[in-house]
# Entry
Amino acid sequence: MIPSLRGTHDILPGEVEKWQHVERVARALCERYGYVEIRTPVIEREELFIKGTGDTTDIVNKEMYAFTDKGGDRITLRPEATPSMVRAFVEHSLEQSMAAAKIYALGPMFRYERPQKGRYRQFHQLDIEVFGMNDPAIDAEVIDLAWSLILALGIPQAELVINSVGCAECRPRFQAALLAALGDDLPKLCQDCQRRAQTNPLRIYDCKVPADQPIIDRLPHSVDYLCEPCATHFAGVQTHLTAWEIPWRISHRLVRGLDYYTRTTFEVLGHALGAQNAMLGGGRYDGLVKQLGGPDRSGIGFAAGLERLVIALPEGTAIAAPSRAFVVAIGEDGRTEALKLLRELRTAGLAAQMEFEARGVRAQMKRADRLQARATLIVGGDELARGEVTVRDMRTGDQRGVPRADVVSVTRAIIET
Ligand SMILES: [Zn+2]
Ligand SMILES: [Zn+2]
# Structure
């Protein structure tokens, strides 16, 4: 046996039903909010993420599956969706072809991280993005969509946190204040924080090292350094969320680990894996489209981790087996007729199965039980000679001979009630 790669996982029958449920709910919600699906390749030019995600991030520095392909191009398996979505928006001029540039995507992402519980090297995300809309109402809509997804999935104990990290105007003042407040404490912080202080001081807030926390807790808050337009925008987002009765709290530490965020950031935290974990997160990235060679358009979106949503689903979600019929054949004549009936049921839109290998009726009935069939149709013997099929309702145990011509409609009546 050749085992699967470390950090990857198969989604097996019994588990895949939950994934299908999450994907169904997500698609339905996105479409209700006016988002249209887009499918981009899993491989992109490495450059897209160096420029887009940012070359000071851990994602680009340590975690990218990047390689030189046979043609000599630098390629990477996408570590996140947003730069791909921006590239597609620019490359295909989506703002001209779409009534509103609101798009979503579902698919795998790849990061070479140390595998741990709930964290994989190939993981899956729902990603939604909006381009060219600046009103705080769109920030609130994106947050509403994220929160509605959590509610629609019935995920308990979720918490929405928001923040504003400011813009190119006001963030430098906040960064300066942050470094000033650190002062003599900087050398006491961990190695990662020392590096962050040089490259992107905001990211010190991402530090999880326990010894650093008392120092980080004393640092200033970005919301106290917003310029007037950023402050007005953030107030607007909160007003809309309140009007829609969406519960949130402000988290000063929510700066998000990427370079491109501006103004609004948000996360939904869950408790499914024991510790508090972000199930989804996103924010506004007003400079990114231009930075990637597009027009000067704003952007906002979020990515939700499907593995985490699936783990957080309430007990008993999406485990109901589909209602189906099972066809049992008695003897060779019965088998020929049973095969015909099987195809008829399926053509009529009903889920139906049959045991092709087993000879005995008892073995076939056992299989029907294992599949939790709602109706069992027994074909053969005297009934077949009379032009009938024995139909058994597996819930009530009622059993009767049904004229061959009526078998499909009688079966439908049983399995669809
Ligand atoms: Zn600002
Ligand atoms: Zn640290």
Q: What stands out?
A: The chain is about 35% helix and 20% strand. The pocket of zinc ion (ligand 1) is lined by residues 166-167, 169-170, 226-227, 229-230 (CB under 6 Å). The two ends are 45 Å apart (CA to CA). The first helix runs from residue 16 to 32.
